Hints:
Distance between the termini: 47 Å
Largest sheet: 5 strands, mixed
Mean pLDDT: 89
Strand order of the largest sheet: 4-3-5-10-6
Structural class: alpha+beta
Number of helices: 8
Amino acid sequence: xxxxxxxxxxxxxxxxxxxxxxxxxxxxxxxxxxxxxxxxxxxxxxxxxxxxxxxxxxxxxxxxxxxxxxxxxxxxxxxxxxxxxxxxxxxxxxxxxxxxxxxxxxxxxxxxxxxxxxxxxxxxxxxxxxxxxxxxxxxxxxxxxxxxxxxxxxxxxxxxxxxxxxxxxxxxxxxxxxxxxxxxxxxxxxxxxxxxxxxxxxxxxxxxxxxxxxxxxxxxxxxxxxxxxxxxxxxxxxxxxxxxxxxxxxxxxxxxxxxxxxxxxxxxxxxxxxxxxxxxxxxxxxxxxxx
Length: 291
């Protein structure tokens, strides 16, 4: 059994769906299905019960999943120890906006316990690059928010958080229980600079062309609202600070918290980071600060 095939199997076993697993693995579904069929031929038993809605693990598949995870973890540990011995065990991590968040602290603690000899370099970026330097090759992995251009990246959604309108506390709309984007149609919005990822700009502008001051950082967003009375979008559970308030927007899709890396990067430290991030920022966890 090849390690690559076992990684394919684990992806299908965790997603319980060949299509979703193929997306996660950045490959088409037919070769993934063939690889699993070959693995079943090697083991001499069916690993999945297949149905139109997805798959479930057989008893043999459950056993193989436990063993495959242990074997892959051991293989990753081997690579890491070799890298440590060679003096090259390092990971560059990008974080969007405010990294002083309890979820980021939990992730840092968990990663340090698991990889105490790895040199972690953190690059905190402003709001003009939602990939935190991934496309530019400046970091290995990033905890950030979508949407953005995913070309060449492996992106895993950790959580979806509701958003709201960021307003001055004395704004005429500040006392409302909820708002719709139409309520803000005639207002000036804070905007990101030209050249910012179009999908990212469109989401935080409510999907429409807007006019208003250009900002690059979280604090600049808040100050634009506080000083100019402009509006923008932020997390509904986010404390905006004195003089500001957040009113939920009922017709905005939630903001996706994601962990992303380059799709072709074989670094085992990245796989470990992604697993630990899923636990640290899972449902019920704290909200990292967006704009």
